[in-house]
Write a structure and sequence with these properties.
Low-confidence stretches: 55-62, 64-68
Distance between the termini: 30 Å
Strand content: 35-45%
Helix content: 10-25%
Number of domains: 1
Order of helices and strands: EEEEEHEE
Number of helices: 1
């Protein structure tokens, strides 16, 4: 099964495996959520969240420490998340799995 064509999905290859990823910004909480999955098996996916810096926040002040805020979710950050998840998380199943990103790097919930 292939993933549907969607202009909001980006693709990345890490260790010869193809993944897709997308981001969603939660303005109410000042959080960016990144969803990552396998291109060949789209139901196998995980996510991570991180705080957005002030350039993303327009209406409210959030309770996230500034040191844990990011300006953007980049392909490099996504590749790091994939490597962390592959080493520390059993996410290749149909369940929802997630990890956390902070200034200290990635960690399990």
């Amino acid at each position: 099964m292939a993933i549907p064509k969607n202009k909001d999905l980006r693709k990345i290859t890490v260790d010869n495996t193809r993944y897709y990823w997308s981001i969603k910004y939660d303005e109410d909480h000042g959080m960016i959520q990144c969803n990552i999955g396998l291109v060949d098996t789209p139901n196998f996916r995980f996510s991570f969240s991180c705080g957005a810096n002030n350039s993303h926040i327009s209406y409210i002040h959030n309770a996230i420490e500034e040191k844990d805020e990011v300006e953007a979710v980049t392909p490099k950050l996504v590749a790091e998340a994939i490597k962390f998840a592959n080493n520390n998380l059993d996410w290749k199943n149909r369940g929802i799995s997630s990890i956390i990103y902070s200034s200290n790097g990635f960690s399990l919930e």
